[in-house]
Design brief:
Helix content is 43%, strand content 22%. By secondary structure, it is α+β, with helices and mostly antiparallel strands.
């Protein structure tokens, strides 16, 4: 993973907008950029390069972006841009038609087509650029997708936003050699999102389908980890697959379904037991909150994981 960081406060005021514009040219297809704040422009942006794809978390003052016929003729990287506004609104004009994209909506942009994007207030979001050749697109599929306001809150769109947000939040957790792996996950999620909306799941390769399903299952487990009835059988039933196939999916994850559920529950309980604000909550109530109906089972699992009983851990934590 290669990371480039831009902070306007690190640049002389007169150079800020031009420097940011130069970084944007590295991030995505060539654009005409302008801002009424260009004389005292403020922005912070990072460019994460992951084996051929770009992820760029950014905050910036109101700007306008234009991809014109002249720029397309001069240079077309043949890529798809996904713009994800986390705060603020994008006003997008394509072929004379305007659409708006608010927080957690996904705006699909084709580098081969003209577009104008405006923001009227400070903007926080994530940009993603992926070569078209890596995605299962055919015919006018991309044109159709660009008309949609894809959700970033649920389904594969929600998984994609959560994954990109996680990468952007803590790049220190990844080694340089992790770039290709991270890129593969992003491409799989985006491919699954596109084929889901285009109803062309048959275009996905079997390995991509497996990885996308695994990520969906892992997100499902995190959402329902507090449910005491969450078991491998319940997870499999919720995804209309057999329990044996579920276990097969997890063979490449260096864990099992049951171990993932237990680990998430134990980490959640450990966090609550160490929280001074929850001193009045009994250990048994903490256990029940995290899906352990049996106090004995919880105590045994906690001691095995952390070397302390839950009660002793809380005591040690409180005396710091």
């Amino acid at each position: 993973m290669i990371e480039t960081v831009f902070r306007s406060e690190d640049v002389p005021v007169a150079d800020r907008f031009d420097r940011w514009r130069e970084l944007m040219r590295q991030c995505t297809a060539p654009l005409e950029l302008d801002s009424e704040y260009r004389k005292e422009f403020r922005a912070s942006q990072r460019l994460l390069e992951l084996d051929g794809i770009s992820v760029w978390p950014a905050r910036f003052q109101p700007v306008s972006f234009r991809r014109t016929p002249r720029l397309i003729r001069q240079s077309d990287p043949e890529q798809v841009n996904i713009s994800i506004p986390l705060r603020g609104t994008l006003y997008v004009t394509r072929d004379g038609h305007e659409a708006t994209y608010g927080p957690d909506a996904l705006c699909v942009v084709d580098s081969s087509r003209t577009i104008e994007v405006r923001t009227l207030a400070p903007q926080t979001g994530i940009g993603l650029d992926v070569p078209k050749a890596l995605l299962p697109l055919s015919g006018n599929g991309l044109e159709k997708l660009s008309r949609y306001r894809l959700s970033g809150r649920e389904g594969f769109g929600g998984l994609l936003v959560a994954f990109l947000t996680q990468i952007a939040r803590d790049t220190a957790a990844y080694r340089p050699t992790d770039g290709p792996r991270l890129a593969a996950i992003v491409v799989d999620l985006l491919s699954a999102l596109f084929t889901h909306h285009l109803a062309t799941d048959d275009q996905l390769g079997p390995e991509t389908r497996r990885r996308a399903l695994t990520l969906e299952i892992q997100a499902f487990i995190r959402r329902h980890v507090n449910d005491p009835d969450l078991t491998p059988r319940a997870v499999a039933a919720a995804h209309h697959i057999s329990t044996s196939y579920l276990h097969q999916l997890f063979r490449d994850q260096d864990t099992t379904v049951a171990a993932m559920i237990r680990g998430l529950r134990l980490r959640g309980a450990r966090k609550d037991l160490a929280d001074p604000a929850q001193r009045g909550t009994t250990v048994q109530d903490v256990a029940a909150r995290w899906g352990f109906p049996s106090h004995t089972t919880f105590t045994r699992a906690f001691r095995s994981a952390y070397g302390f009983s839950p009660r002793d851990f809380r005591h040690v934590s409180s005396h710091g």
